[in-house]
Design goal:
The structure is a single chain. The chain has about 240 residues and is α/β, with parallel strands linked by helices. It has a domain at about 5-90 and about 160-235: Rossmann fold (3-Layer(aba) Sandwich), CATH 3.40.50.300. About 35% of the residues lie in helices and about 25% in strands. It has ten helices and ten strands. The protein has helices at about 45-55, 75-80, 95-105, 120-125, 125-130, 140-155, 170-185, 200-205, 225, 230-235, and strands at about 5-15, 20-30, 35-40, 60-65, 65-70, 80-85, 160-165, 190-195, 210-215, 215-220. The strands form two sheets. Strands 6-7-8-3-9-10 form a six-stranded mixed beta sheet, with helices on both faces. Strands 2-1-4-5 form a four-stranded antiparallel beta sheet, with helices on one face. Helix 7 (about 170-185) links the parallel strand 7 and strand 8 (about 190-195). The chain is globular, with a radius of gyration of 17 Å.
Length: about 240
């Protein structure tokens, strides 16, 4: 028996103004699965995450655990369990780290398989944030801003997480810590859609990969299967 996907996108079309970027994207991610969306710069990967979150006008269907998200606004999608971490790390500069975290708090579902994320648990997991709890957002380094953006999203206790370029600008040590966190989240049953420029980082983490090109998914399979498809890599992933 095939299990129902946790997050399913069908026929998604979206863009900016009159320019269509996504031309009918289909993808799915299950609970406890990490799907890496790969493609060249400008292929529409970030647009895909934004449209899935409801941040862009889009046609097609987005379902979360069988619920059609339809015309729901981003904040209502978040309340249903869809989390999103933007590439630009939308931290409120005039608020403290603690105030930024408090903006993301939503209670865990009663049927959640693991303990919910609380402020205390987040600060235990993201120790650098505890040390900067009262610092304003503008005073944080790029790495600290990324930690804060991820931690704030986790406080919403999402079931599925859309993650855009989480390692951009991070030092190697922080990249390793991010990889360890994503593995933990996946092992806890979260479905993750990862957009990441570091190809090897994404391939090392992914259960499956989807290659986006010309606004459509051109390949879906395991990292090993992608490694056997030189033509796909040459056409859609090579610089």
């Amino acid at each position: 028996m095939t299990l129902r996907p946790l997050l399913q996108v069908t026929g998604l079309r979206a863009g900016y103004g009159l320019g269509e970027v996504l031309r009918g994207v289909d993808l799915a991610v299950g609970p406890g699965e990490l799907l890496a969306v790969l493609g060249r710069n400008g292929s529409g990967r970030s647009t895909l995450l934004q449209a899935t979150m409801g941040l862009l006008p889009a046609r097609g269907r987005v379902r979360l655990d069988g619920t059609d998200l339809g015309p729901l606004a981003p904040h209502r999608r978040a309340r249903l369990g869809l989390g999103y971490v933007a590439a630009h790390r939308a931290v409120f500069d005039r608020l403290s780290v603690q105030q930024n975290l408090q903006l993301g708090i939503l209670p865990a579902r009663p049927d959640a398989p693991r303990p919910g994320w609380t402020e205390s648990r987040v600060l235990d997991r993201f120790a650098p944030l505890r040390q900067r709890l009262h610092a304003p957002g503008w005073a944080l380094s790029g790495g600290e801003r990324q930690l804060l953006a991820i931690a704030r999203t986790l406080l919403g206790n999402p079931r599925a997480l859309l993650l855009d370029e989480p390692t951009e600008g991070l030092a190697p040590r922080q990249v390793d810590a991010t990889a360890a966190l994503l593995r933990q989240l996946r092992d806890d049953g979260m479905g993750i859609v990862l957009v990441e420029q570091r190809l090897q980082f994404a391939l090392d983490l992914a259960d499956r990969v989807a290659v986006l090109g010309d606004g459509r998914i051109e390949f879906t399979g395991s990292p090993a299967e992608l490694g056997e498809r030189d033509a796909v890599s040459a056409r859609w992933l090579a610089p």
